[in-house]
Amino acid sequence: MPWLWAAALLVLGIGLAWALLFSPPDWQQGETVRIMYVHVPMAWLAMGGYAGLAIASVLSLVWRHPLADLAARELSPVGAAITALCLATGSLWGKPMWGTWWVWDARLTSVLVLFFLWLGHAALVRAFEEPERGARAGAILALIGVVNLPIIKFSVDWWNTLHQPASVARLGSPGLHVDMLYPLLTCASGFALLFAALVLARVRSAVMERRIRGLELASARRHEQGRFSEGAITS
């Protein structure tokens, strides 16, 4: 964990300084394009994180792995926060470019659905007194929501939208000049490392909490057994 936190802060610091201070402005968007260095990594992480949630859900449903349940449970709040940042920065970017904070564009609407899926999973896994029931229900919801990922990815190709098409992950050469592409990829790497550090820290805390509860339960059982034995001897 210390190495991961250090790598995340170092790479992210370099990426943000490179993007905000040294990368050139766009010839059309001007300085507004710098929102891209946060917005685009947030969008990638929102989708990639949900794919990770789906994988954890498969591990939970098929192999009943308890660590997969914990990972999914702790992943969803971080994913919801990441998706909220994606929507917020996209809105800030859309106002000067489109003249409005929000449009019911196919890409924007599908990302909003993704945000609600993250929130729904986070609420559902915590809605039951029995953690196993919540984990099963959350896993089913996560797998149903996977259908939204290709809709987000290909919405700009399938429908006529205001959102620009892919500029980096596309066949052929990227649409960004290397002066913008390299700081963007550095920022994305830093945010990805930070995302991983946050999720692993939450999972580690959840594992320790479960261990403590297990020890408390075992101690309470031994105490009850001791009282029962003392009562039987007295009788």
From TrEMBL:
Function as written in the Swiss-Prot or TrEMBL entry: Required for the export of heme to the periplasm for the biogenesis of c-type cytochromes.
Name of the protein in question: Heme exporter protein C
InterPro entries tied to this protein: Cyt_c_assembly, Cyt_c_biogenesis_CcmC, Cyt_c_biogenesis_CcsA/CcmC
UniProt key word Signal: no
Main subcellular localisation: membrane
Homology family: Belongs to the CcmC/CycZ/HelC family.
Compartments in which it is found: Cell inner membrane; Membrane
Lineage: Bacteria, Pseudomonadati, Pseudomonadota, Alphaproteobacteria, Acetobacterales
